[in-house]
Amino acid sequence: MLLKTYKTYFINQLLSLYPQEEITSFFGILCAHYLKTDRMEMALAPKKVLQPKEEQQLENALEKLKKQIPIQYITGETEFYGLPFLVNPAVLIPRPETEELVDWIWKKHQSENIHILDIGTGSGCIAISLAKNLPGAFVTALDVSKEAIATAKTNAKLNDVEIAFLQEDILNIKILEGKWDVIVSNPPYIKDGEKKQMSNNVLEHEPHLALFVPDVNPLLFYKKIAQLAKNHLKDSGVLYFEINEALGKEVISMLEKEGFQNMELRKDLYGKDRMVFAKLK
């Protein structure tokens, strides 16, 4: 089958589930992944014939897209802060707002030799991006999931950075070994009651362990991390959080009660409250 013929078929198969622009993007990603062909090459080779293996790979991906499996899990890869990352259902797919958090930290600390702790590292996107772009930094990454740690270790090797990894349940830790200049976390922050507002590709395929918190205790992770940070930040150490857009004021209030100061609530590119900075007194 001609590639351009298959593209028409591919788009028509998915139109009931996704916008056409997104489907076209999916097709380009899959062609780059399986055929090693970019959009320019496809445009210049309209009569390219798919080999049976290539057609089967695209067909398998199409069936997964019909089940609303995220494209990143289908290809097993994504890009974050200009770096390649492997992803799988054991880790969240990195989001653009998290790139903004990394960029904020990089801009504030790029001339420093600092120790950084990333809590709930998942794929390792925050820890690895900071290690790659802050050559003088010593970075530690913590996660409760053995599978997530394994993925993050692979991504550290892929990006040629040294990271110290800890597999720990942050909610059950009383003390950590070490002190850091920066503690950063993008912990679970979506309330259980918000599940019904989420798309199926997230709800049915991304790890709930990394997403959801009880409605009655939405700051569960933030409070625990803030309490640990008081003992494990160096003098004048700082804390960064990615947050639920609806809980900015609550996070700031909690941090104030825990003894932090100089809090800053920052919006993302879409104008949503997404990031918090606080300094240890």
How do you describe this structure in short?
By secondary structure, the protein is α/β, with parallel strands linked by helices.
What would your notes on this structure say?
By secondary structure, this protein is α/β, with parallel strands linked by helices. The chain folds into 2 domains: 3-67; 81-280, Rossmann fold (3-Layer(aba) Sandwich). The protein has 11 helices and 11 strands. It has helices at 3-14, 20-35, 39-44, 52-66, 71-75, 96-109, 125-133, 146-158, 200-203, 220-232, 248-257, and strands at 77-80, 83-86, 115-119, 138-143, 163-167, 180-185, 190-191, 212-213, 233-242, 260-267, 273-280. It has a 7-stranded mixed beta sheet with strand order 5-4-3-6-9-11-10, with helices on both faces. Strands 1-2 form a two-stranded antiparallel sheet. Strands 7-8 form a two-stranded parallel sheet. Helix 1 (3-14) packs across helix 2, helix 1 runs parallel beside helix 4 (52-66) and helix 2 runs antiparallel to helix 4 (52-66). The longest helix has 16 residues, at 20-35. It is elongated. The mean pLDDT is 93.
**What gross morphology would you assign?**
elongated
Number of domains: 2
Strand order within the widest beta sheet: 5-4-3-6-9-11-10
State the end-to-end distance.
Answer: 66 Å
CATH topology of the largest domain: Rossmann fold
Q: According to CATH, what is the class of the largest domain? A: Alpha Beta
Query: Uncertain regions: pLDDT < 50 for 5+ in a row?
Result: none
Q: Can you identify the CATH superfamily of the largest domain?
A: Vaccinia Virus protein VP39
Helix content: 40-55%
Structural class: alpha/beta
H/E element string?
Answer: HHHHHEEHEHEHEEEHEHEHEE
Please describe the biggest sheet, giving its number of strands, its sense, and whether it closes into a barrel.
7 strands, mixed
This entry's quaternary arrangement is: single chain
How many helix segments? Answer: 11
